[in-house]
Amino acid sequence: MAKTNKNQDTEGQILEAAKDVFQKKGMDGARMQEIANEAGINKAMLHYYYRSKQLLFEAVFSNAFSLLAPQLNKILNDDSSIENKIKNFTSNYISFISKHPYLPNFIIQELNRNPKFFEKIQQNTAFPTLEKFKNQVSAEVEKGILKPTDGEQLFINIISLNIFPFVATPLIKGFLKIDEKGFKQLMEQRKTAVSEFIINSIKK
Amino acid sequence: MAKTNKNQDTEGQILEAAKDVFQKKGMDGARMQEIANEAGINKAMLHYYYRSKQLLFEAVFSNAFSLLAPQLNKILNDDSSIENKIKNFTSNYISFISKHPYLPNFIIQELNRNPKFFEKIQQNTAFPTLEKFKNQVSAEVEKGILKPTDGEQLFINIISLNIFPFVATPLIKGFLKIDEKGFKQLMEQRKTAVSEFIINSIKK
DNA sequence: TTATGGTTTAACCATTTGGTTAACAAAGAT
DNA sequence: ATCTTTGTTAACCAAATGGTTAAACCATAA
Fold first, then answer.
1. Is A29 an 8 Å CB contact of chain B?
2. Share of chain B above pLDDT 70, in %
3. What part of A 85-144 touches B (C-beta under 8 Å)?
4. Can you give the CATH number for the domain in which A23 is found?
5. How far apart are CA A161 and CA B41, in angstroms?
6. Which of A74, A110, A114, B181 has a CA 20 to 30 Å removed from the CA of B25?
7. Which of B29, B168, B202 sits opposite A108 (nearest CB)?
8. Interface pTM, i.e. ipTM
């Protein structure tokens, strides 16, 4: 069994290895040889399947981004109340990122390196927009459910509180003098602490 | 006038150029030649004054970090009330970073690349600790000024809300469909919006 | 004036790195 | 069986890059 076909999904192995290396080291720090080693194949295969480092990188980046986009959609385009959305998003997002710890930093870093990537991605992925969220905030303010609140600022606050600790993990570990275990505990607490913090602030 | 001395502070020019290049491109993306060009001198001078890329980088990094540390001290080791600290810090920090936009991302990125830097820095710089802040939060909770609040989580929230938008600028510009001007406006609003948001949440 | 010492430069070097090539291997098609 | 296509590899290449060197430069102390 196994090994009937020659190409045991080499392409997939490459993408997997590339994901690991690129997410840990970034475009500039990553080495094609290291990706090949990690995939257990010859370096020439990387070019056979993906032509260039740049294209391989873009494949990984698109992939990562399209993993994150649906997460954001949960808060932007869903029909529950703002309060429920915040609760769900916070808890889900922290769970999700705990499984993909390099993801947010990778995306942010590479977006800073080359902001044009955003446009490139925007076309491929089904892209979340803010309109609905802003309207919903206005509506709930009007109804007296929320205090006067700017939807854009609220959106920034939500993603800041949820994403930042995973982007700045070493900084937080350093200041709080905690190790990986302590960090995980803290993030576990944040699944509820963050949404409470936000809701306390905006709910009338 | 001028040009009496041979070494017109070449060392300083190098550091300045290195700062620019390293902060924009990171350790891996930076090129010694580019730093030399930006400083308008021969590449060999970089090695004459700083021995190696690694050491030049560390000089820049230490410098950047010791610029940021005092900012954090404002919130950690100062005698005003929690509420006032948050107000002052938020406003000051956003002003400060607007003048050094690459700083937070640079530090976070390079700390992720090599978390050991933290220890290296911790020895040099007068290093802010969380003890005082945590005690103060507990005290104000006890006195009934604040709702029950965990000091560590509050600290994370404060720095998340203040720093994240500057780390993830391209992301935010993308989602909100705004340009540099719109972004600056938004950050200007945040000088008060963020502290109100936090205080609304924790004040009894 | 001329040694002297730090400063600066052009040329050079070894290594790394992304990418290519040519030969080979394994299936599938005929 | 043999031809053809696809997958895979070792060896190779040119460019880039961090770093070195030896000579030139130049302010100044003797």
1. yes
2. 96
3. 105, 107-109, 111-113, 115, 118, 122, 128, 130
4. 1.10.10.60
5. 44
6. B181
7. B168
8. 0.91
